[in-house]
């Protein structure tokens, strides 16, 4: 029991940094997946070829990133920390380490139901990304968390650059 409590305390160091990094990675992946699943969100273009589908997807990804990433960074990080804390509390009370992951996963699902299927997908992607990062390294530093925010910015710039090049040279 004492060893487990020391493990939990050690694990709490750097949780916010890890959550920010998880949000950066999962928010970027989520926007890209969403762009390829729903390339014609507004129904304003007809997609009749692979070429049109590809450019419609590329064009909508920056839009998805602008709206989903801040929500994932703010709402996702806060609710993920709450989920992990509740999971930690219950696992300490029951003296079972596996309970923490189960409770945290279930709470991610509950918090992810705010926008039904759309946010549920983001919540599950966030949970999976966070669990992978948790297993890879115990402590993350603030500099790493801040650097991780470059991933969505660079991704947004790349997709906007592709859109710009398409509009300038292919139209």
Walk me through the structure.
This protein has one domain. The model has no long low-confidence stretch (mean pLDDT 89). It contains 7 helices and no strands. Helix content is 83%, strand content 0%.
Our measurement of the CA-to-CA distance between the termini, rounded to an integer number of angstroms, reads: 66 Å
Strand content: under 5%
Low-confidence stretches: none
Nearest-integer average pLDDT: 89
How helix-rich are the residues, as a percent range? over 70%
Total number of domains: 1
The description of the largest β-sheet is: none
Backbone shape: elongated
Global structural class: mainly alpha
Number of strands: 0
Radius of gyration: 19 Å
| Alpha plus pi helix count | 7
Order of helices and strands: HHHHHHH
What's the short version?
The longest helix is centred in the middle third of the chain and has 45 residues, at 50-94. The protein is 83% helix and 0% strand. With 171 residues, the chain is mainly α.
Helix and strand topology:
Layout: H1 2-12, H2 15-37, H3 50-94, H4 98-112, H5 117-136, H6 142-148, H7 150-170
Q: Characteristics of this structure?
A:
mainly alpha, single chain, 171 residues, 83% helix
């Amino acid at each position: 029991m004492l060893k487990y409590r020391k493990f939990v305390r050690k694990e709490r160091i750097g949780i916010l940094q890890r959550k920010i990094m998880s949000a950066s990675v999962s928010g970027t992946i989520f926007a890209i997946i969403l762009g390829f699943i729903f390339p014609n969100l507004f129904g304003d273009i007809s997609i009749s070829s692979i070429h049109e589908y590809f450019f419609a997807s590329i064009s909508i990804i920056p839009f998805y990133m602008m709206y989903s990433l801040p929500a994932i960074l703010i709402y996702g990080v806060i609710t993920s920390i709450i989920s992990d804390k509740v999971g930690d509390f219950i696992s300490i009370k029951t003296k079972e380490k596996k309970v923490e992951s189960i409770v945290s996963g279930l709470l991610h699902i509950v918090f992810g139901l705010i926008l039904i299927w759309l946010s549920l997908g983001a919540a599950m992607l966030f949970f999976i990304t966070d669990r992978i990062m948790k297993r890879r390294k115990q402590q993350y530093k603030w500099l790493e968390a801040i650097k991780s925010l470059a991933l969505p910015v660079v991704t947004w710039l790349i997709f906007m650059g592709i859109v710009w090049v398409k509009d300038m040279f292919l139209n």
